[in-house]
Amino acid sequence: MIRRRTILAAGLAAPFVARAAGSARIVVIGGGFGGAAAARALVAADPSLAVTLIEREAAISTGPGSSAVIAGLRDAASIRFAIAPIPGVVRRAGEAIAVDPSARRVRLADGALVDYDRLILAPGVDIDWDGLPGYDRAAAEVMPHAWTGEAQTMLLRTKLAAMPDGGTVVMSIPANPIRCPIAPYERASLIAWFLKTQKPRSKLLVLDAKERFSNQTNFQAAWATLYPGLLEWVGLPDGGRVTKIEAGIGRFETEFDDHRADVGNVIPPQRAGAIAHAAGVADRTGWCPVDPATYESKLIPGIHVIGDAIIGGAMPKAAFAAGEHARACAAAIVASLRGTAFAPMRLENICYGLAAPGYGFSVRGAYLPNGKLLNEIEGTGKTSPPDAQADMRAREAEDADAWYRQITAASFA
């Protein structure tokens, strides 16, 4: 369950104070889980702040829940949320395309300029179109990634529904870091459930560039019980890393072998969202190094980055984590503007996964900054027990649904 937390006093190691806290202009780019939480946390901490939220989309389609849409367990509208007004926050519809850190100014695609004293980027992830040979935007229309955007999610759902029974689905998963490390395995599970119930002579092959993955024991136990002979997972040591895609012929090339798909789902390598690169806060890894206590960029002063785009250490890229970053970042900015002491926050995260309807499990942990990254606090990391009985699996599936309702209500209501 989501826990509400009083925002702690925080400050920045080298604060920039352009004006008094009550008149400071804070601009937040990105209206997803992290950006929405940051805007709300800022005005909750100091209602006199001039907070502007910039988001190009009128509605957000969430990553959580998208695998259920692909498998036909949800419809697309159930994971789509309009950007609701936030009291005390000015909403600017538009796409931020450039940042001038010297002038402290954001430029939008329509030419409009928005000035700031502090800038928070919540850009999420983008596909790294140079990360997998043969996989580009045209290939994604043949082999959907279904990782960002409602259109891609629905394209994969349509292709699965149209595949004849007896077909082969091939899914590829990249090496970390990726958004929500548990998500690809929930997707594999729910695609397998769809095949089992709708196209039982079909097969799912999962090619994975990793040897180990989040909640692996639980997922593989579920697969052995629910999908024997239907779902095959191939990890890195056995040739799971895909090295090239030929979408036109459904070909996945690996270090050891080639595989052909009737339906292909390529989860490609990822990087921080485009505005992070335009602002100069992403490094050569494609991700954003930040102070793990304040989320201020280590590359550009006055810009903070939260959510999936950061280099976060042990804390995974996840919706819940983005909200935790947002609250800590907001507290740090407000304290810096007020000149008050900084108290780093303990952060928590929880991720749920479904292996089938009514069959869930979770992974959770708590984290503290160590000066460079976020470290998991010893003894806080917990996963569902592998030997859990059916009633516990059902409860965790119910908890997953309740968690989703709560986090979307908190972010978008």
Strand content: 25-35%
CATH architecture of the largest domain: 3-Layer(bba) Sandwich
Number of DSSP helical runs: 9
Our Rg estimate from Cα atoms comes to 21 Å
Report the strand count: 23
What shape does the CA trace take? globular
Helix content: 25-40%
Q: Tell me the count of domains.
A: 2
Query: Strand sequence of the main sheet, in spatial order?
Result: 5-2-1-9-19
Largest sheet: 5 strands, parallel
Mean pLDDT: 93
The first-level CATH class of the largest domain is given as Alpha Beta
Reconstruct the topology from this structure:
Blueprint: E1 25-29, H1 33-45, E2 50-55, E3 59-61, H2 66-70, E4 80-82, E5 89-93, E6 96-100, E7 105-108, E8 113-115, E9 118-121, E10 125-127, H3 137-140, H4 150-162, E11 168-173, H5 183-198, E12 203-208, H6 216-226, E13 231-234, E14 242-246, E15 251-254, E16 258-260, E17 263-266, E18 270-272, H7 274-279, E19 303-305, H8 319-338, E20 347-356, E21 359-369, E22 374-376, E23 382-383, H9 390-412
Parallel strand pairs: 1-2, 1-9, 2-5, 9-19, 11-12, 11-17, 12-13
Antiparallel strand pairs: 3-4, 6-7, 7-8, 10-18, 14-15, 15-16, 20-21, 21-22, 21-23
Description:
- The chain is an alpha/beta fold and 413 residues long.
- It folds into two domains: 21-56 and 94-124 and 273-412, FAD/NAD(P)-binding domain; 137-266, 3-Layer(bba) Sandwich (FAD/NAD(P)-binding domain), CATH 3.50.50.
- Helix content is 27%, strand content 25%.
- The protein has nine helices and 23 strands.
- It has helices at residues 33-45, 66-70, 137-140, 150-162, 183-198, 216-226, 274-279, 319-338, 390-412; strands at residues 25-29, 50-55, 59-61, 80-82, 89-93, 96-100, 105-108, 113-115, 118-121, 125-127, 168-173, 203-208, 231-234, 242-246, 251-254, 258-260, 263-266, 270-272, 303-305, 347-356, 359-369, 374-376, 382-383.
- A five-stranded parallel beta sheet has the order 5-2-1-9-19, with helices on one face. A four-stranded parallel beta sheet has the order 13-12-11-17, with helices on one face. Strands 20, 21, 22 and 23 form a four-stranded antiparallel beta sheet that branches.
- A hairpin with a 4-residue loop joins strand 7 and strand 8 (113-115).
- Helix 1 packs across helix 9 (390-412).
- The longest helix is centred in the C-terminal third of the chain and has 23 residues, at 390-412.
- The radius of gyration is 21 Å and the shape is globular.
- Mean pLDDT is 93; it is low at 1-19.
